[in-house]
UniProtKB/TrEMBL annotation:
The organism's place on the tree of life at top rank: Bacteria
Annotated HAMAP family: Rib_5P_isom_A
GO biological process, one term: D-ribose metabolic process
Oligomeric and partner information: Homodimer.
Protein name from the UniProt record: Ribose-5-phosphate isomerase A
Active site residues according to the UniProt entry: E104 (proton acceptor)
NCBIfam families: PRK00702.1, rpiA
Name of the encoding gene: rpiA
Enzyme class: isomerase
Function in brief: Catalyzes the reversible conversion of ribose-5-phosphate to ribulose 5-phosphate.
């Protein structure tokens, strides 16, 4: 089952956590399994501090008794563990299915090491079947929509229960279909130059290791 594989990948990732580390805590259901496993190790005496990448992760981490810190205390993260929506053979990622891409990118980008955990459904030959989440300023988002269309994308304003979805940063998310994405970094660079775009869900050249579980077996993808 997919959720068993998410849990298995998460359990494997916790083996890389060492005493004294500052951890980047990603977001999503796979990461939630990692948080549960991490809290068990903390009960056994492991000392770490985590920086959460979303309000949801922060809430669960607090409930699980995981000690937290923030960027006002340290800008150094030893290891970040995060999920992904799509992963290609070069470890380019699409992230942001949960709407946390900006904080995830801030956290993941400043980590010495980034481990991605996923079930095998996330591994693809080429990115793009999953619409690319792009976080945009609410002000004038209609202009940003038009500019993304000029780049060949089909943006769709994300909604949740009929309301416009608002990110932890107070912004909107445009889920953008570009068909198959050939040059992930090039697409990111075009999008990030558009006024109103806060960040894209393309995480290129960031993951150091991907732990994938498929039918109860673990596989490692490395660059
Ligand atoms: C949230 C993310 C998540 O990491 C991604 O959506 C994977 O989620 P899940 O582990 O629930 O499949 O990028 O913004």
């Amino acid at each position: 089952m997919m959720s068993d594989d998410k849990r298995l990948a998460a359990l494997e990732s916790v083996k890389y956590i060492k005493d004294g580390m500052i951890l980047g805590l990603g977001s999503g259901s796979t990461v939630n399994w990692m948080l549960r496993a991490l809290s068990e190790r903390i009960k056994e005496g492991l000392r770490i501090e985590g920086i959460p990448s979303s309000k949801k992760t922060e809430k669960l981490a607090k409930e699980l008794g995981i000690p937290l810190t923030d960027f006002s205390k340290t800008t150094k993260i030893d290891l970040a563990i995060d999920g992904a929506d799509e992963i290609d053979g070069n470890l380019n990622l699409i992230k942001g299915g949960g709407g946390s891409l900006v904080r995830e990118k801030v956290v993941d980008a400043c980590a010495d090491e980034l481990i991605i955990i996923a079930d095998s459904s996330k591994v693809v030959k080429q990115l793009g079947a999953f619409s690319l989440p792009v976080e945009v300023l609410p002000f004038g988002f209609e202009v940003t929509v038009a500019n993304i269309e000029k780049l060949g994308g089909i943006p769709k304003l994300r909604r949740k229960e009929n309301e416009i979805f608002v990110s932890d940063n107070g912004n909107y998310i445009l889920d953008c279909s570009f068909g198959t994405i050939d040059g992930a970094q090039a697409l990111h660079e075009k999008l990030i130059r558009l006024v109103g775009v806060v960040e894209t869900g393309i995480f290129s050249g960031m993951a150091d290791k991907v732990i994938v579980a498929r039918n109860g077996e673990i596989k490692f993808l490395t660059r």
